[in-house]
Specification:
By secondary structure, this protein is α+β, with helices and mostly antiparallel strands. It has 13 helices and 15 strands. Strands 1, 2, 3, 4, 5, 6, 7, 8, 11, 12, 13, 14 and 15 form a 13-stranded mixed sheet that branches. Strands 9-10 form a two-stranded antiparallel sheet. The longest helix has 21 residues.
């Protein structure tokens, strides 16, 4: 018995020693901050594996040359990329010699004014994982990194477009993991400064006018014309001065994604847990980590399913039901390791167990209380303002609201004031009468008019996005007046 107890204490001491060795060095006040030379150094001590990678990643921390190349490639065809992560190193690589020619991007108006503020390495990785390593020095020593951006347009593939690896042509296609399904364009400014000042400033765009920095903001990067973006939002039109790629939507190709844990972590059950140094006896309780990079999961919006008729036409050979073998129970993690491991996300819903009020149940991603980690349903008063919203009418061919629309919009403003954590995307659709480009521009102006209406009634601008869908997403046939009336609609959707 004394020998067993001594072995347990030795294992505990080894675990504690290993965890302490991983702690990042302290920043000494007054010393110059050292720029990291490797990703591991940039995010030392950060739990990157606990952050779910973005399926619509932002590009403000990406290098300017890649942003310019993305704009060039979208004119040639469908853009292919390689998107993967190993630990804190998230890579987005444009494959210039791999282009899809079976579809093309279409412009539609899109309005959003937002900002991102990172006060530490973990927040920086969660908000701007692509290129974040080069900026990690700007969130140390009491400093914060802030990015203000304006979105004024979207270049997207048609809603019914699907893609397979065989649709791509070029010598780089064997390396492709995703195609770019949407490119959001606009203008941005990125700056760093004292944390409290960065939180308090109303906007950074003025800081970039006179040069590279102001008294309290170091402007790190700025691209695009904010004034031109404001005009493009208002008029629902394209602008070459407001065309910086700031965000992309990704659609995974049909090749199966490899699944493995990031560097520095091991697979424990269905979750990746940080690896710890332990004695040989304790190490035997932990599975081995895989060194292979983890290809990022596909975006939540997947390719549309086959219609029922198409499914019925495909004969399926009957096969015997597989035997339902009961899986062996998972091997328990020793208590001395379990007590020292950082918080994990055992149910895999993106909410860490330390903040998850329902650690065994998956969060319902519906834009409502998505941070508590619990399944839920929208309250009836909120559900009333999700989906197609009746009672909102515009003057024919214009973006001006008819007087009878104010009742519905005032009720919506009061509702969103009572739920300050909700974020809203407004989409306006048209029928197919007239030119498609004119309909897209008109729907953009109308969506922006609704957004302005809510902002004028004290709803924060960062909580409301506006999208002009034009005639591209009908829900009924445009061959009849009744169908065209159904297609002329306003939709509200909650976003995270």
């Amino acid at each position: 018995m004394p020998l067993a107890r001594a072995a347990a204490y030795s294992a505990l001491a080894a675990v504690v020693s290993g965890l302490c060795a991983c702690a990042p060095p302290a920043n000494v006040a007054g010393q110059a901050l050292k720029s990291p030379t490797t990703t591991g150094e940039a995010f030392e001590g950060a739990q990157c594996s606990a952050v779910r990678p973005q399926t619509e990643p932002d590009l403000m921390a990406w290098d300017p040359g890649s942003r310019a190349n993305l704009n060039r490639l979208r004119g040639a065809g469908v853009v292919a990329v390689r998107y993967e992560a190993v630990g804190c190193n998230v890579k987005l690589e444009l494959l210039s010699h791999c282009i899809g020619t079976t579809s093309k991007y279409q412009f539609s108006p899109y309005s959003a004014n937002q900002r991102k503020v990172a006060h530490n390495e973990s927040e920086l990785f969660a908000q701007l994982p692509i290129g974040a390593a080069s900026l990690s020095a700007d969130v140390k020593g009491g400093r914060a990194l802030r990015t203000d951006y304006i979105l004024a347009g979207q270049y997207a593939l048609p809603p019914d477009a699907t893609f397979r690896t065989t649709d791509l042509k070029g010598v780089d296609c064997a390396r492709a993991t995703h195609v770019v399904s949407a490119i959001y364009v606009g203008a941005f400014v990125m700056g760093a400064g004292e944390s409290r000042q960065m939180d308090a400033k109303s906007t950074l765009f003025g800081s970039a006018l006179g040069g590279s920095s102001s008294a309290d903001v170091d402007v790190l990067s700025t691209e695009g014309d904010a004034e031109a973006c404001s005009v493009a939002q208002r008029e629902g039109t394209e602008s070459n001065r407001c065309a910086v790629p700031l965000r992309i939507g990704l659609e995974a190709l049909d090749a199966a994604a490899s699944v493995s844990c990031p560097e520095g972590s091991t697979l424990q059950g269905n979750a990746c847990a940080p690896a710890v140094a332990a004695s040989p006896a304790a190490a035997s309780a932990l599975p081995a980590a895989s060194a292979a990079p983890a290809v990022l999961p596909p975006p939540l919006a997947s390719a549309p399913a086959l219609p029922p008729a198409a499914v019925a036409e495909a004969p399926v050979a009957p096969r015997p039901a597989p035997a339902q073998a009961k899986p062996p129970p998972p091997k328990a993690t020793p208590w001395y390791i379990q007590a020292l491991l950082p918080s994990l996300d055992h149910d895999g819903d993106g909410v860490l167990d330390s903040r998850d009020q329902c650690p065994s149940d998956v969060e319902t991603k519906n834009g409502f209380q998505d941070a508590d980690g619990c399944p839920d349903q929208l309250p009836a008063e909120v559900a009333k303002f999700v989906g197609v919203i009746p009672g909102i009418e515009f003057d024919a061919g214009r973006s001006s609201l008819r007087p009878e629309s104010t009742t519905t919009l005032d009720a919506a403003a009061k509702l969103f004031a009572r739920y300050p954590d909700l974020r809203l995307r407004i989409s306006v659709h048209t029928d197919n009468l007239g030119q498609a480009a004119d309909n897209r521009a008109l729907s953009g102006r109308r969506a922006n008019a609704l957004r302005d209406y809510l902002i004028d009634r004290a709803i924060d601008a960062g909580r409301v996005e506006a999208r002009g869908a034009g005639q591209e997403e009908p829900i009924a046939s445009n061959a009849s007046e009744a169908g065209r009336a159904a297609n002329r609609r306003v939709e509200f959707n909650l976003i995270q």
